[in-house]
Amino acid sequence: MLALIGISLSACGGDDERSPGGPAAADARALCKQNSDAEDTASVNAVTTYAVGPWARSAAEGQRVTAAYLTLCNSGTAPIVLTGAASPIAVAAEIHQTTTDADGVARMTLAPPLTIAPGDGLRLSPGGPHVMLIGLAAPLAPGAVAPFTLSFEDGTTLAVEAPARAIAGASN
């Protein structure tokens, strides 16, 4: 059980950008503005929500969990609320957050619904909210694609394809 928790936390990261407040939020907003007309955005749904820079941690043979990251942008005129995820390569996909308790112990928990204001962005990143892919059906080699779908409170979805990256020092 402890090994699974360790693998799960290593899949989440925890040492990079923090979100949804502070510098990471400003970075997400700037990234969204920079990419609002770019052709390299991952996907767009009918409510003008799009993903920029998606990627996933690669997962070695026997590793049953990994995490995916991206910046979600809302170029619409109404707030959007991220409520969940699904993936054909995993038994479950969930939106998680990493929190640190008073004793300095990092824990991963389900994130509450995450609201993105009009014209704003939300960075799903190591150490912050992220997409957790649980019960992987097969290893996820560097360069392979991790497909998943994000769900929003209004019933819309956003399909994302995240290329897998090997991370130095990670258990993959």
Task: Please characterize this protein's 3D structure.
This protein has 172 residues and is mainly β. It is built from two helices and ten strands; from the N terminus they run ααββββββββββ. Strands 1, 2, 3, 4, 5, 6, 7, 8, 9 and 10 form a ten-stranded mixed beta sheet that branches. The longest helix is centred in the N-terminal third of the chain and has 13 residues, at 22-34. The radius of gyration is 15 Å and the shape is globular. The relative contact order is 0.27. The model is unreliable at 1-23 and 38-46 (pLDDT under 50).
List keywords for this structure.
2 helices; 172 residues; 42% strand; 10 strands; 10-stranded mixed beta sheet; mainly beta; single chain; disordered N terminus
Number of beta strands: 10
- Stretches where pLDDT is under 50 for at least 5 consecutive residues are 1-23, 38-46
- What is the overall number of helices? 2
**Gross geometry:** globular
Q: Distance between termini?
A: 19 Å
**Radius of gyration, Cα only, in angstroms?**
15 Å
Q: Indicate the percent of residues in helices.
A: 10-25%
